[in-house]
Design brief:
The chain has three domains: about 70 residues, no CATH class; about 240 residues, TIM Barrel; about 45 residues, no CATH class. It is about 45% helix and about 10% strand. It is built from 17 helices and ten strands. The strands form two sheets. It has an eight-stranded parallel sheet with strand order 8-7-6-5-4-3-10-9. Strands 1-2 form a two-stranded antiparallel ribbon. Helix 2 packs across helix 10, helix 9 packs parallel to helix 10 and helix 10 crosses helix 11. The chain is globular. This is 2-Methylisocitrate lyase, PEP mutase family. Keywords: Lyase. It holds the Pfam family PEP_mutase.
């Protein structure tokens, strides 16, 4: 039996009267979580190397401010770091409402200058609105602009797409985790999307969860994903619910309340019952959302009987776990219809490979058609439409 499997349910399973119906999206941190996280390695910002804080398009200050000076990225970083230190010192003394308000106000202004909405708060705000948030996997700025043009609010920085498209230049960091973070910064800077960063992808090396969370925070991530597997790799054993609970507390302490903490569980491979118990435990420990990895249910052929089996698993989960706090997933968004996910009340829908699968499929088919002097499978965008959607129209005006 895997570590933290069925035998560990009793030690962390909530009593029958426990409820998760009230989302933690605006709650303060628990005092016991603070105590745990305060002693977590890597949770003190002064013990870490200085990290870059991006000047994002959602947070660009006006070109002229009082006094004639424009805050620089360095000014922003200093303000950011100074603002976080007192927060950690008096965190346990604040009430839930006071903490959430102060955190949001601090992140929404720089040196008294009003700036655009904080990217980190965008996902939380979208989830609070009550509608299903759809976050396709995104791996470059072009894809982010396509998602924006489609009216979406969020994107998942897909490790699959990153690995497929990653081609580091000689001047790029040799560390793949640093390149992954650089891409996160680019997406935050170039788009108005809430970017979800995956913290357990095999790219992170030996970094602790708190270090990875701090990195994602500095990149402007609106969501951060951790897992209950021991490390990265196929069929890795699972950690106990107690261990994961401590990590949730440490990560929450690191990123504050605006960043949405998502915890993935791989326990479905054992049983949906195991997965449900873990989801309950992780929500109790302070996670905002839980992501039960349903891959075993996605591998079936898409017959009516298979769809019924898949939906029965989701219904079983929602008997004890609020649907609004469950993240559902499908590589290309075909395993669970969007209307059905919305009807069931799920909070977030990840379509991790939709963009890259569409891009590679389209390029392959269009190239084959062009080489054979045949019409393509669908009409291509006109040069004008393509320039407008990709935002190179201004460049074209100057060029021609």
């Amino acid at each position: 039996m895997i570590a933290g499997g069925r035998s560990s349910h009793d030690e962390r399973r909530p009593p029958e009267t426990a409820t998760h119906e009230q989302p933690r999206l605006a709650d303060g941190d628990r005092a016991d979580s603070n105590a745990t996280a305060g002693n977590a390695p890597g949770s003190n910002p002064e013990s870490r190397q200085e990290r870059r804080v991006p000047v994002t398009s959602r947070r660009h200050v006006q070109n002229k401010v009082a006094g004639g000076e424009t805050p620089t990225a360095g000014d922003r970083q200093k303000h950011d770091q100074e603002g976080r230190r007192p927060q950690k010192q008096d965190h346990a003394e604040r009430g839930p409402q006071e903490y959430g308000l102060a955190e949001h106000q601090h992140r929404s202004g720089v040196d008294g200058v009003d700036v655009a909405p904080v990217p980190r708060a965008m996902l939380r705000d979208a989830l609070i609105s009550g509608d299903l948030v759809i976050a396709p996997g995104c791996y470059d700025v072009l894809g982010a602009r396509v998602l924006e043009a489609a009216g979406l609010e969020a994107a998942y920085l897909t490790p699959f797409g990153f690995q497929a498209a990653d081609a580091p230049s000689p001047h790029a960091p040799h560390d793949p985790w640093e390149r992954y973070l650089d891409l996160a910064r680019e997406l935050v800077d170039a788009s108005g999307l809430a970017i979800i960063v995956d913290g357990q992808t095999g790219l992170e090396g030996e970094r602790s969860a708190t270090e990875r969370a701090a990195d994602a925070f500095s990149a402007g991530a609106a969501g951060f994903v951790i897992e209950d597997r021991q490390g990265f790799g196929k069929d890795r054993p699972l950690r106990t619910m107690v261990e994961v609970g401590r990590e949730i507390a440490a990560v929450r302490h690191e990123v504050g309340r605006e960043t949405t903490v998502i915890v993935r569980t791989d326990a479905v491979r054992e049983s949906v019952d195991d997965a449900r118990a873990r989801c309950e435990s992780y929500l109790d420990a302070g996670a905002d959302l839980v992501l039960p990895l349903m891959t075993r249910y996605l591998n079936y052929p898409d017959t009516p009987a298979d769809r019924e089996r898949r939906m029965s698993a989701y219904h079983f989960l929602t008997e004890r776990v609020p649907a609004r706090r469950i993240v559902v997933h499908s590589p290309t968004g075909r395993h669970l219809p969007v209307d059905e996910a919305r009807r069931l009340g799920f909070g977030l829908y990840l379509m991790s490979q939709l963009l890259i699968a569409s891009a590679v499929t389209g390029m392959t088919h269009e190239l084959a058609a062009a080489l054979a002097d045949e019409p393509g499978p669908m009409p291509l965008l006109t040069p004008v439409d393509l320039a407008t959607l990709t935002r190179v129209d201004r460049w074209l005006e100057n060029r021609w």
